[in-house]
Every structure is written in C-alpha cells, then in structure tokens.
C-alpha cells in the first residue's frame, strides 16, 4: 500500500511539474512557437530571407516586450492553421479574424487596416460577376482553409464549386489551363505575390469583391489572457509611433 501511495505521489508530482512548465510557456513570449506563411506584403520569403510588414511589426513587439528575436517557422497555410488548432503555445500570422474563427483562438490586432477578399479572373475569359449568385456557376480556386473558403461557404457558394489547393502557384496553373474559372484570395496580396514571383498580373482582373477581414496575430486558446493582453498593449503602443508609419510606407506605398 505504501508503495502504491509513493508511486501515486510521484505521478502527481510529475503532473504538477509538467503543468507548471506548460503554464510558464503560456506566460513567456520566448516559449511560444511562431508560425507564418508566404503571403506578401505581410509575410514572405525573398532571397531566402523572411520579410514582410507583419514580420517586422512582430520584431518591434518583441523589442517592446524585452524579448530577444525568436525563430519563425514557415509552413503552407493549411498545415500552419492545423497546428494552431491542435497544439498549444502557437502564434500564427497573418491570420484573418473571421466570424467562424473568432471563438477558436485568441487575437492580437488588427495589425493594419482591414483587407478584402476578392474573386479574380483571367481577363481573356471576360467573366463578369454582379452578385454571388452569378459566381455559383463557376469553379473557384482557393487556398485550403484560407479565409476565402469560409467567406464563400458562408455566402452560399456550394462546396462542390470550391477547389482547394495548398499553394498559390497551383491556382495560377489551374486557371490558365481551364481547370478552374476563378480564384478567391486576398486582393492586395494576390497582385503582390504575382509581382514578387515575377508573374504577369496584367493577365488578371478583380471581378467581384467579398467581405473585409481583420488581419491579426492568432494565439492558441491555451495562451494566457495576460500574455495576449501584453502583446496587444505593445502593438497599440507601437501603432502610435513613427516606426509603425515607416512600416506602412515601406510595404503599402
């Protein structure tokens, strides 16, 4: 009996110990795992270097919180979002704060003005859309689990009309060979990605604009409210500073 009690005590001690480690991680910005995707001008790879508005802004937040620069991991969007949904101590950016996601995560933002998802077509196809009802007859390419998918589904577009892929370039290839008719994506980022990748954006045009979304840093639900508030306070402070305005001018002008 004493042996069982002793083992039970050891187990309880280990549970408390590891719980304590997890709780500490919830409070320490340096213990969080930072994830992003290739999504210019907010976050993107150029010449093997991670750049972008939200990347530089995050570095300013770390500085404000007296945290040394942290490693940022880059994943395809669907995988990064899946990690955020299922693992602890994750920060994913830049994440659109949509109605469907608002209760799933904790949020710091907005980091800049709201962005708009648009439906984009090849000019040569001369597609004109005046309402979402008219979009229902087309096949629409999206990035898997992107905000555009949620917006389309919530707007009444059938799931069968939506064609998800993992990478931006896949949709460009598909629309050019006629496997999809349209692409739904963040409008500003779409044309920026075309530019960064040396593609001809003049081949495309926006044919319909959808809802605006709020760009944010998204945190796992287990991250403490107090730490999220510290990030928000740091962001709010930075947004009143000249450094923030310099970032806006660098990436949006």
What's the SSE pattern? HEEEHEHEEEHEHEHEHEHH
The number of domains: 2
- Write the CATH fold name of the largest domain: D-Maltodextrin-Binding Protein, domain 2
- The rounded distance between the terminal residues' Cα atoms is 73 Å
| Shape, principal axes of CA atoms | globular
The CATH architecture assignment of the largest domain turns out to be 3-Layer(aba) Sandwich
Q: Mean of the pLDDT scores?
A: 90
Instruction: Please name the fourth-level CATH homologous superfamily of the largest domain.
Output: Periplasmic binding protein-like II
Number of beta-strand segments: 11
Q: Tell me the structural class.
A: alpha/beta
**What is the overall number of helices?**
9
CATH class of the largest domain: Alpha Beta
Instruction: Tell me the radius of gyration.
Output: 21 Å
Q: Segments where pLDDT lies below 50 for 5+ residues?
A: 1-24
Measured by DSSP, the beta-strand proportion falls in 15-25%
Largest sheet: 9 strands, mixed
Helix content: 40-55%
Question: Would you kindly provide a brief summary of this structure?
Answer:
The chain is of the alpha/beta class and 253 residues long.
């Amino acid at each position: 009996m004493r042996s069982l009690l002793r083992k039970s005590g050891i187990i309880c001690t280990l549970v408390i110990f590891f719980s304590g480690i997890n709780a500490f991680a919830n409070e320490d910005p340096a213990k969080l795992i930072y994830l992003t995707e290739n999504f210019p001008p907010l976050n993107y790879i150029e010449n093997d270097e991670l750049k972008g508005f939200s990347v530089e802004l995050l570095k300013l937040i770390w500085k404000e919180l007296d945290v040394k620069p942290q490693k940022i991991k880059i994943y395809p969007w669907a995988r990064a979002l899946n990690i955020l949904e299922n693992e602890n101590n994750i920060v994913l950016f830049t994440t659109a704060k949509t109605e469907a996601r608002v209760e799933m995560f904790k949020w710091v933002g907005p980091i800049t003005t709201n962005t708009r998802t648009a439906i984009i077509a090849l000019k040569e196809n001369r597609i004109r859309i005046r309402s979402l009802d008219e979009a229902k007859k087309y096949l629409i390419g999206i990035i898997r689990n992107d905000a555009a998918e949620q917006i389309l589904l919530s707007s009444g577009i059938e799931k069968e009309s939506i064609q998800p892929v993992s990478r931006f370039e896949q949709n460009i290839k598909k629309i050019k060979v006629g496997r999809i008719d349209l692409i739904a994506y963040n409008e500003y980022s779409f044309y920026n990605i075309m530019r960064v990748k040396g593609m001809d954006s003049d081949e495309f045009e926006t044919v319909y604009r959808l809802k605006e979304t709020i760009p944010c840093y998204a945190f796992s639900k287990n991250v403490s409210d107090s730490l999220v508030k510290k990030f928000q306070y740091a962001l709010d402070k930075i947004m009143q500073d000249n450094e923030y305005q310099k970032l806006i001018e660098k990436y949006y002008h």
